């Protein structure tokens, strides 16, 4: 079946949007010690029950890659040689073996991901319930040092005709290296930079675009464009004479994530064409 000719034959991965995965992370400055972890573990299990997350699995760390078949976010493999775990993970898997939701409470971070993204409000609302239920068990022991929001968007080409990305990706954009773009061959472009927010906090912005042949939902290999956009905020500077320990408070975390979400929408609109923006209702 031919794809949307307005996008050069490319179609978003989902009917109404292109998001394959959305993820938010709260990174703490160091790990909970054994005593604090045991206390936090009780709060984690109770909160997971309250939110309806099911049974926990041991979490050994995360390895995030773009592989040749999907956006890969791998946990629990390989497991360490020792029995000590890095945290607890609650994962819901669909019938197609793809991640629906994942909630991770590690000793040094909190991660919430969804592979069934619909709208920001529903995603962040459920994430907030999880984080709020366990926040005190973390923040009373270790400061929150960074907040991150990221998206993976995918567009698949629906036929074997010209694979030009000219109708999908902006030719005048600042976030793709024009030297990388090829119509016939696979290519990758990655750019990132820091800037200071009005309060002095550093914000890292990153945009990575991969164009290659990947298996689609039907198992057939097709030309696809994967776009990973990410923003991460650190803490604002603290006066040298201050004895205050710098840390994000929960309200700061939520406000930061809302800000990052809106800026990431704008970032994507500066990577893809106006036709693609309209196709996925990005400004809606």
Rounded mean pLDDT score: 87
Q: What is the count of DSSP helices, taking H or I runs of 4+ residues?
A: 4
SS elements, strand count: 12
What does the largest sheet look like? 10 strands, antiparallel
Beta-strand fraction estimate: 25-35%
**What is the CA-based Rg, rounded?**
20 Å
How many domains make up the coordinates? Answer: 1
Beginning-to-end CA distance, first to last residue: 28 Å
Overview of the structural elements:
With 284 residues, the chain is an alpha+beta fold. It has four helices and twelve strands; from the N terminus they run E-E-H-E-E-E-E-E-E-H-E-E-E-E-H-H. The strands form two sheets. Strands 1, 2, 3, 6, 7, 8, 9, 10, 11 and 12 form a ten-stranded antiparallel beta sheet that branches. Helix 1 packs antiparallel against helix 2.
SSE arrangement:
Blueprint: E1 10-12, E2 19-28, H1 34-51, E3 57-59, E4 62-66, E5 71-75, E6 87-93, E7 99-106, E8 109-114, H2 120-139, E9 144-157, E10 187-196, E11 202-215, E12 221-233, H3 250-269, H4 274-279
Antiparallel strand pairs: 1-9, 2-8, 2-9, 3-6, 4-5, 6-7, 7-8, 9-12, 10-11, 11-12
Helix pairs in contact: 1-2
Task: Tag the structure with descriptive keywords.
284 residues; alpha+beta; ten-stranded antiparallel β-sheet; two-stranded antiparallel ribbon; 12 strands; 23% helix
Question: Briefly, what is this?
Answer:
With about 280 residues, the chain is an alpha+beta fold. The protein has 4 helices and 12 strands; from the N terminus they run ββαββββββαββββαα.
